[in-house]
């Protein structure tokens, strides 16, 4: 059987979230004991918790919510590229030497080590021109190991809008530390949440045969 890489964050109390956004909580509602036959619990979380897919409605007033997005981009052939040398912004010049002529899905690794223990504002972002380049090569999805394509302090969301223009999908907060650059099958479906602007995903990469 081909190897599976789990590229999802562990969802747990205290996990890093966007500054000001809802902290993750998981509390018991019923506890299995002599009186009660089951454990049941309640989740409190932001739609952008951990490894997640953005819906267009996250940033576009008339954008589609997550339950309506095409699922095809979240499943299928994918290339993982090492962008650890890119500095603050991934520019086309960083991609050109390693980007295949045709791609369907592109995941970019930027962290040396994914920051599990706390929020980092100094994450690497993606230039809108880099989104154009990926779209020209055929990409239907871009995935990053940072919490956003755009800088934390920039409200223009230029890279998000460029993705939207090209009809691409977005994954954020991937954990790519253990994944060698190369070709894989991506599996990372959003939940069917009515009206939601994003959804957590369980993101996997499957090694290709041969
Ligand atoms: N959770 C948030 C709370 C407030 C403001 C932004 C966010 C984001 O997550 C934005 C980010 N642009 C994201 O790419 O999805
Ligand atoms: Zn998001
Ligand atoms: Zn986003």
Ligand inventory reads: (2S)-2-amino-4-(2-aminophenyl)-4-oxobutanoic acid, zinc ion
Which percent range fits the helix content? 10-25%
State the CATH class: Alpha Beta
CATH topology: Glucose Oxidase, domain 1
Q: Quick check: average pLDDT?
A: 98
Shape annotation: globular
Strand proportion, as a percent range, falls in: 25-35%
Task: Provide the fold topology.
Elements: E1 4-6, E2 25-30, E3 40-44, E4 52-54, E5 75-82, E6 89-90, H1 92-95, E7 105-109, E8 125-126, H2 128-136, E9 141-144, H3 158-165, E10 169-172, E11 182-187, E12 198-200, E13 204-207
Parallel strand pairs: 5-7, 6-8, 7-9, 9-10
Antiparallel strand pairs: 1-13, 2-3, 4-10, 4-12, 5-11, 11-13
Helix pairs in contact: 2-3
This protein binds (2S)-2-amino-4-(2-aminophenyl)-4-oxobutanoic acid and zinc ion (2 copies).
The site of one zinc ion (ZN) has 5 residues, from strand 4.
Binding site for Zn(2+) 2: 54, 160, 172
Protein name: Kynurenine formamidase
Function: Catalyzes the hydrolysis of N-formyl-L-kynurenine to L-kynurenine, the second step in the kynurenine pathway of tryptophan degradation.
């Amino acid at each position: 059987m081909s190897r599976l890489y789990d590229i999802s964050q562990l969802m747990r109390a205290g996990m890093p979230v966007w500054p000001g956004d809802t902290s993750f909580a998981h509390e018991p509602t019923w506890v299995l004991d002599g009186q009660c036959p089951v454990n049941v619990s309640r989740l409190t979380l932001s739609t952008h918790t951990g490894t997640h897919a953005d819906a267009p409605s996250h940033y576009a007033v008339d954008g589609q919510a997550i339950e309506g997005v095409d699922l095809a981009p979240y499943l299928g052939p994918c290339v993982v590229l090492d962008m650890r040398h890119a500095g603050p912004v991934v520019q086309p010049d960083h991609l050109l030497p390693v980007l295949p002529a045709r791609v369907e899905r592109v995941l970019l690794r930027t962290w040396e080590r994914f920051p599990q223990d706390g929020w980092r504002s100094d994450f690497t972002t993606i230039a809108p021109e880099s989104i154009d380049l990926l779209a020209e090569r055929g990409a239907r999805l871009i995935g990053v190991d940072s919490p956003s394509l755009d800088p934390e302090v920039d409200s223009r969301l230029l890279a998000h809008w460029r993705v939207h223009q090209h009809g691409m999908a977005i994954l954020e907060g991937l954990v790519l530390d253990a994944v060698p650059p190369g070709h894989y099958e991506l599996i990372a479906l959003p939940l069917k949440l009515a009206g939601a602007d994003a959804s957590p995903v369980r993101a996997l990469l499957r090694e290709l045969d041969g």
